[in-house]
Automatic annotation (TrEMBL), chains A, B:
Listed EC numbers: 2.5.1.18
MF-aspect GO terms: glutathione transferase activity
Domain annotation GST N-terminal: ranges: 1-80
Keywords: Detoxification, Transferase
Any one GO biological process: toxin catabolic process
Family per record: Belongs to the GST superfamily. Tau family.
PROSITE patterns noted in UniProt: GST_CTER (PS50405), GST_NTER (PS50404)
Chief place where the protein resides: cytoplasm
UniProt-listed Pfam families: GST_C, GST_N_2
Catalytic activity, as annotated: RX + glutathione = an S-substituted glutathione + a halide anion + H(+)
GST C-terminal domain ranges (all copies): 85-221
GO cellular component term of the entry, any: cytoplasm
Name of the protein this chain belongs to: glutathione transferase
Length: 227, 227
């Protein structure tokens, strides 16, 4: 089992967490996006687009974070990342989709907050705050540590792969979004989540991530156009 | 079982197809986006965002097209929309995600092709053609009628909810994308897909859809800003 990823990617990190939580041994291969490994190119399902992270299992690639998680959960049922009950599964999947859409379409992370356009920046800030307030309102149930209840599930993994990066984006941009007073349930959740050694040990170092994102931000600012 | 949807939505249509293929009886409730039903508002999982389509089952809402399909497949295993083999499931899910991302992020449909900006329009055209050529290259296996093999699966439903609308967008915009000579496998697929009575009978009428999208396009052109 191999996982091709990049250290600074929330998507790669989420898959690492899933593999670690399930106790599945794997070889991690750090990819350089500007000089991709022959193995990655060989297993990539398309010629025109490179997917990262990619899980290689039995010489076959599985791409896209949530697709990988579903695959892992079906192949290795230990430490289920999706609830057992079909309705509860739909709720967990809904929250993953919610987070994915916010990051993708609303560009609440890098591409929005780091954008040259003040209008785009302002919209990304508004969208981030709206997303956080919705997630706060639908936070972990009373007395529960995680969105998944007493154990981490896929909704925790998805939000964790956003919340940590959000803190770094705040530091680099100097703009506060994830305020502890405004979002007390989410901050309590964050404490519980990061207190798990498996999570903390597989989280990119905040200092390195800050330096990396600061460089990315400079690139975005110096490029003439960006989405 | 109730499905709240809008007739012109590819997402609502996909869920209708899934319910029909599985033979699950349901009540369809057409929603007016400007005057939503009390039932829809009551079952909506969030106050700030209205999801359509919504499946109401046992007085509980299930939102987001793919989440609904996964739920239906888990609750009603007849006519499986996802393959049985975990790896094949991951491949089908990957293609759904691919189509979803192209429609969402690359705006290959309305918001792109109908955009006032020539730059945005040109990008949407490029992205559409790229998407189609990738899907063509990875079309149904030789001798198979559908992406799912001999039966329709979720990858067919996802692409069908794009291809039909693409034809309408072409008609309204006067720009050809889905060319039969460039994409012979996809056109053969389209013929097979639409020849199924269950699909054809639950497809919005092309003329009505053209008129509807022409009005949407006018609205986009007359609004001062749009994404």
């Amino acid at each position: 089992m191999g996982l091709h990823g990049t250290w600074a990617s929330p998507y790669s990190t989420r898959v690492k967490w899933a593999l670690k939580l399930k106790g599945i041994p794997f070889q991690y291969i750090e990819e350089d996006l500007y000089n991709k490994s022959a193995l990655l190119l060989r297993y990539n399902p398309m010629h025109k687009k490179i997917f990262i992270p990619v899980l290689i299992h039995g010489q076959r690639p599985v791409c896209e974070f949530m697709v990988i998680i579903e695959y892992l959960d079906e192949m290795w049922p230990q430490y289920p990342l999706l609830p057992i009950d079909p309705y509860e599964r739909s709720v967990a999947r809904f929250w993953v989709k919610f987070i994915e859409d916010k990051v993708g379409k609303s560009k609440i992370l890098y591409f929005g907050i780091f954008n040259k356009s003040h209008e785009v920046q302002a919209k990304a800030m508004r969208d981030s705050l709206e997303m956080l307030s919705i997630r706060e309102e639908h936070g972990p149930n009373k007395g529960k540590k995680f969105f998944g209840g007493d154990n981490i599930n896929i909704a925790d993994i998805a939000f964790g792969g956003l919340a940590h990066w959000m803190g770094v984006v705040e530091e680099v941009s100097g703009r506060k979004m994830f305020d502890a007073e405004k979002f007390p349930r989410l901050h309590a959740w964050m404490g519980n989540f990061k207190s798990l050694p498996l999570i903390a040990e597989n989280l990119p170092d905040q200092g390195n991530l800050c330096r990396y994102l600061a460089r990315q931000r400079e690139k975005l600012f110096s490029s003439s156009t960006h989405k």
